[in-house]
Design a protein that fits this description.
Length: 168
């Protein structure tokens, strides 16, 4: 059985507290038809004077493009996205925490999740007749914390992140 796309969910902390245990999660993707984590692997290859290939693996520079993101004052992250764009904020003012959850078994009581500090950067604003659009990119910035959320908290649309491995 293949997983449906809704099995992978991305949430941003709308409180901008930068603490996954106190986060007020809001899901990203309401108007988005296609959203992926671009891993952007940093790998290079070069041939030395002996004719051998040397590979340099410097890891990843993951990012996500949330496009479109229509202005909706009822969404808790909207004021932050608007403020970053309109006030041209940078640095720590653009940072929050992201929660990624993958539901591989809908009957499980706990689901694999990762929390990580991220930098949120709107790419433009305006748009067409569909509405005011503030498309933004999410860039990982900091350590990735492995943990889980309970099925119950996920279904209530208020996931609670717990650091650590899933135990039986």
């Amino acid at each position: 059985m293949k997983l449906t796309r809704e099995a992978l969910a991305h949430f941003l902390d709308s409180s901008w507290k930068k603490d996954p245990t106190k986060a007020e999660w809001e899901i990203v993707g309401e108007d988005i038809e296609d959203m992926s984590v671009d891993l952007n692997p940093d790998v290079s290859s070069k041939k030395n004077i002996l004719g051998k290939n040397k590979i340099s693996d410097k890891g990843y520079e993951p990012s996500i493009s949330a496009d479109p993101y229509y202005a909706d004052p009822s969404m808790k992250i909207y004021p932050h996205i608007r403020e970053i764009a309109m006030d041209r904020l940078k640095g720590d003012a653009c940072k929050t925490v992201m929660l990624e959850v993958i539901v591989e078994d809908t009957e499980a009581t706990k689901h694999l999740a990762y929390a990580q500090e991220v930098l949120v950067k709107p790419q433009s604003y305006g748009g067409d007749s569909e509405g005011v659009n503030f498309p933004f990119n999410i860039h990982e910035d900091g350590d990735r914390i492995k943990g889980y959320v309970t099925n119950e908290s996920l279904k209530s649309k208020k996931p609670v992140f717990t650091e650590g491995e899933i135990t039986a």
